[in-house]
Amino acid sequence: MLKSTNVSATNSFNLMKLLYLLLAIAGSIAPWFWLLQDPTALVSPTLFFQKAFANNIAIALTNDLLISAVAFFCLAWMELKRLRVSRWWMLVYIGLTFGVGLSCALPFFLYRRELSNK
């Protein structure tokens, strides 16, 4: 039988905040590790998109990422409004998404949301 644990809301809050921050850091390193393996694709948007849509697997992953990014932007916009946080933060999240990756922008957004939910 499973025993109930008595984890306080504060500990849970701190653990989630730490997890989101660690994921944002990992999400800023991992995509760039792979992108820097072929720096020529970074200087040519045409080559970048050619490689992003090179085969069916790449197309599926690229489409999944684009749809996830749009859903994330909708979520972020509504959460910023709900939390009464300046919507100028959308520029940060959009910049992180397209400049680093959704794997950085989404956990960073969740980290900032945890800070706002005190």
Concise synopsis of the structure shown:
Pfam families: DUF2834. This protein has helices at residues 9-35, 40-43, 45-52, 56-82, 89-99, 102-116. With 118 residues, it is mainly α.
Describe this structure in words.
The structure is a single chain. Helix 1 (9-35) runs antiparallel to helix 6 and helix 4 (56-82) packs parallel to helix 6 (102-116). The two termini are 34 Å apart. 16% of the residues are buried. The radius of gyration is 17 Å and the shape is elongated. The model has no long low-confidence stretch (mean pLDDT 90). The longest helix is centred in the N-terminal third of the chain and has 27 residues, at 9-35. The protein has 6 helices and no strands. With 118 residues, it is mostly helical. This is DUF2834 domain-containing protein. InterPro entries: DUF2834 (IPR021362).
Strands, helices and their partners?
Layout: H1 9-35, H2 40-43, H3 45-52, H4 56-82, H5 89-99, H6 102-116
Helix pairs in contact: 1-6, 4-5, 4-6, 5-6
**Largest sheet properties:** none
Give the class from helix and strand content and strand pairing: mainly alpha
- Uncertain segments are none
Helix content: over 70%
| Cα Rg | 17 Å
Strand content: under 5%
The ordered string of helix (H) and strand (E) elements is HHHHHH
| Number of distinct beta strands | 0
Total number of distinct structural domains: 1
Query: How many helix segments?
Result: 6
Span of the ends, CA to CA:
34 Å
Instruction: Give average pLDDT, whole number.
Output: 90
- What is the molecular shape? elongated
